[in-house]
Amino acid sequence: MTLDGVVESPGGNETPHPHGGWQSKYRSPEAGKYKIDELASVDTLLLGKTTYENFAAYWPGQTGAFADPINQMPKYVVSRSCKRWSGTTAISFARWRETSLR
After folding, report:
1. Is the pLDDT of residue 1 over 50?
2. Contacts (Cβ under 8 Å, ≥6 apart) of 21
């Protein structure tokens, strides 16, 4: 999150937000290692529909230390419908509220 509260569009053009791409200004080997370590600390991704659609459009075609775990781990998306991405389970909001995924 940026100091002015911007969370969306960290990489650039994911959405039309005027401050898209803010994260690219802070790239460093240390930040990259932090993100890889952060990803290694989880075994499942829980995503909202919009984030999921952005991830599903980009990550399946990527490989490497960050992409491989994302592509291989189970993914849950809170949505009635979604594009298929390996390892994805779509769950309704009602089901999400009733599960231990919260």
Report:
1. no
2. 9, 10, 11, 12, 13
pTM: predicted TM-score of the whole model, two decimal places: 0.70
Q: What are phi and psi of 30, to 5 degrees?
A: -65, -40
Determine the Cα–Cα distance for residues 101 and 77; give it in Å rounded to an integer: 11
Residue 49 CB neighbour total at 10 angstroms: 15
Q: Where are the alpha helices (DSSP H) in the chain?
A: 29-40, 49-58, 67-72, 93-98
Give the list of residues 6+ apart from residue 46 with CB closer than 8 angstroms, or none. 75, 76, 77, 78, 101
Closest CA to 87 of 34, 43, 54, 27: 43
Q: Which of 51, 50, 55 is CA-nearest to residue 66?
A: 55
Distance of alpha carbon 80 from alpha carbon 72, whole angstroms: 22
Residue found by looking up tokens 């002015």 in the block = 4
CA–CA distances in Å: residue 15 to residues 18, 47, 51, 95: 9, 16, 10, 28
